[in-house]
Amino acid sequence: MFSSERRFDPFSLVLGILFAVMSLVMLRNPIGSLRALIILIAILLIVEGVFKLADISVLQRDLGLSRGWTIFSSVIDIILGILIFMQPSFGAVYIWILISLSFIFDSFFALWASRFIGKEHRGLFWFNVVLGVIGVILGFSLLFAPEMAISVALFLVSFYFMFFGILLIVRSF
């Protein structure tokens, strides 16, 4: 079943090249990429809301979520998705706020978690603290600079596509 013999995988190569080209296209055409990202987010919000409503009993049984909270959450997802379809500028605001808050909360979490590694690894502790403080500063600066937040979001998606494309190309050989 598992062999040490590696064979060429043309599907991974083609997919990797497509991801890498898509990354370059995103960087070359940021306005079109933003529109596509906004539409993708709207579609994913609607699909997530519908799936949560369809699987409400499974979510309640397996995760212990209350039925009322699940219905409320899925309706909010569907409304946000429809609103983003109808007003694409709201989608840009959604991305702006989401990126800014994710930087802030992730950095605060990193600062909180650094206290657990401080006793054993002093170097890692200070590295984590410095990155956490930089992340908080960056998050608040993104909160007050929407253009920069949108640019960061597009760059992060483009970087992911390029990284994943290169990984698939290397993996194909």
From TrEMBL:
Signal peptide: none annotated. The keyword Membrane applies. GO terms for cellular component: plasma membrane. Pfam families: DUF308. Keywords: Membrane, Transmembrane, Transmembrane helix. It comes from the Bacteria. The chain crosses the membrane at residues 12-31, 37-56, 68-87, 93-112, 124-144, 150-170. The keyword Membrane applies. This is Acid-resistance membrane protein.
